[in-house]
Every structure is written in C-alpha cells, then in structure tokens.
Amino acid sequence: xxxxxxALLFAIVMVLVSGCQTKSDYFGWRGPDRDGxxxxxxxxxxxxxxxxxxxxTEVGEADASPILVNDKIYQLTKxxxxxxxxxxxxxxxxxxxxxxxxxxPEITGGARSHPxxxxxxAYVDGMIVTHGASGMLACLDAxxxxxxxxxxxxxxxxxxxxxxxxxxxxxxxxILHLGGHDNGIIVALDYKTGEEIWKIEGEPSTYSSAVVxxxxxxxxxxxxxxxxxxxxxxxxxKWRIPTPPGQRYFYNSSTPVYDDNVHFISGQGIGTTAYKxxxxxxxxxxxxxxNNPDNGVSFCTPIxxxxxxxxxxxxxxxxxxxxxxxxxxxxxxxxxxxxxxxVFDLGEVLVSSAASGDLIFFEPNASEFKQIARYKISxxxxxxxxxxxxxxxxIKDEKTLTCWLIE
Length: 407
Fold this sequence. Notes:
The chain is mainly beta.
C-alpha cells in the first residue's frame, strides 16, 4: 500500500507539473506542430474598435519571433551590438534576465535592412535553444539565462540573406539545416550537450525550417534550396521532390506544408503544386497531383483548414484560398497587404499578420473571404510572428515588444 501511495503521489505531482505548461504556450516556430495552428486564444464576444496596450518595452532588433512558456516571453535579438536572449514577465513586460550569446554579425547586402537574428528559439526541458544570424547555436537555462553550451562549428558559410531556420526539437535532438549554397549541411545535435548525432552534407540550405511528417512514422521534412526531402529520424534521405525556383527572388522560404501524404509546394514563383508521396513495398514514389500557377507565396507559409490551403500571395500579400483536392481557387481577397505577411489558425478565427503592422482577423469560411476585424499594432514593420494567448497578443516589431489586450 505504501508503494502504491508513493506511485500515486508521484503521478499526481507529474500531472501538476505538466499542467503548468499549456497547449497555448509557444515552444517554438509556428506552434506545436509547426503548422500555424494554435489553441488557447479567447475570441471576444464583441470585437473592439481598437486594441488596448498593456505594456511595451524595447528589446532590440530582430525578425525572430518571441516564444511564450510558463508566463515568460523569450526573445532572441540584437541589442547593444550583441546577439542576446531576453526573458520578460509576460504579464508586466518586466525584464527577468538577458544573456549575451555572441557579437552580432554585420548584416550586409540585400539583408541589411534586417539587422537582427531571424530564427525563432525553441524551448525544451527547461532550456532555450537559439540559432543566430551567423549560424551560432546556443542553449540556455530558461530559468536564469546561463549558457549551457554554444558552438560556432557551422558558421563557415551561411545563406545569401543570413540564417532563418528555426530549431526543430525531436526526441533528444535539435535538427537544423545549416551552411549555405555550396556547403549546406543538415544536422541533428543532442540538445542537452550540443554534440553532433548525425549529419547530411551537400544539401544547399535556404530559409525554411524543418517539420515532423506525422503521416509517415519516423520522418521529418526539410525544404532545401532546390528539393523537398523526406528524412528518417536517424538521418537517411528516403525521397526527394525537386523544387527549383522558377523565378528570380524566390528562395523556397516556406516551412513544409502537408495534409496526410499530400505535400504542397510553393515559394518558387510558379504558383502552388501538390505532390502525393506513396509508400509501397518498402519504396517511396511521387505523384504530381495538380498545379495552380496563379496563386503562390513568397515568404508566407500556408495553413490547411477544412480542405482549404490559405495563404498570402507572392506579390501583394492578398489572402487566398485553394481547394486542396484539385488546386482550384475558392476565394481571393483584393486588399493589398504585404508579401511578407503570415497566416495562422486560432480555432474559431483565422488571422493574417502583415509586415505593414496590421492584424486582419477573418472567418474560417469555406466559400468566401469575410473579414471580422482589422487592427493597427505597430507603426514600424513587423516580420516576427505574433504570439496569441487568451486575450493577449504579443507583437515584436522593429525594436520593441508590445502586449496588446482584446477587451
């Protein structure tokens, strides 16, 4: 009986501890499944005319999105010429700690208007894993900001516009596509120590982030500069779909998007294409299903909702919807937003965050576009993804982080 009571007590404690972290926490890039779907947002009974600012604080320059865990906001940023991780109290905006990782690289060329880091941190087991603009990797204690490990092993080459891939946490691994065009490398590191577990060399990197393909057991999806790859958890490439850019200024920046075993490719300047990946008798085969040449993305990652692929288009950021069964256009709005806009599924409502500093809430409607509300949330451009938590919206703009209330 004593052993039973001890086991029961342990189970209760574990439930309580795990309950501190909710499904609405943001552990990394684009939500729990990296598909732009989030739970925990509380839609108001009546949408207000404007949002209410709860707090605003300067955090430095970054396109990296903040993450929210256990009522704390973590932000990778460039501040005082250093790449730093900042931890804030999500209720008050109070600075809890900040840690310098490395001297911030000088951002040059076409990327110079984006001087800070772009990669969203990942939270796992009380640690924060970061990927800086020059390829510096680091792991910090989420409680006090102490550096557990960091490495510049993979900084000898970076993409043309510097790094953007966000760490994927899978089992005991942190998986990233590093390097650049000539010496791209996909690596899995032990996230507790930074030690390399496996690597795949010779795959040119781009600005996309890897995802887990949950349809097929033990595979991840990695979008390279020229191919979509299916890779096993132990680092073996099982299949590839050629995805070469079809126009200049298109870079395969989108995070991979799929529905069951159908993969939707966009971001090459040639619209959107659907491919079916089949597994038969131990082999993978690829079937091309459809192409819609008129609707594609530039930097946006589409979402899948109720048989629709919804995204912001490659030229003006127009919101559009495609039928995922055949690629036909269901609806397309005429409001110009920005090709850097992003779109998210909050359950009862969908939302697009435009780089112009606007949030557009709209219905998850399968027949037409219906806007619910539109709010101005920054006077500067916004490239980081927002964080939506209950009645709060956290916005990282050019230099500040703001908490807005829907009330």
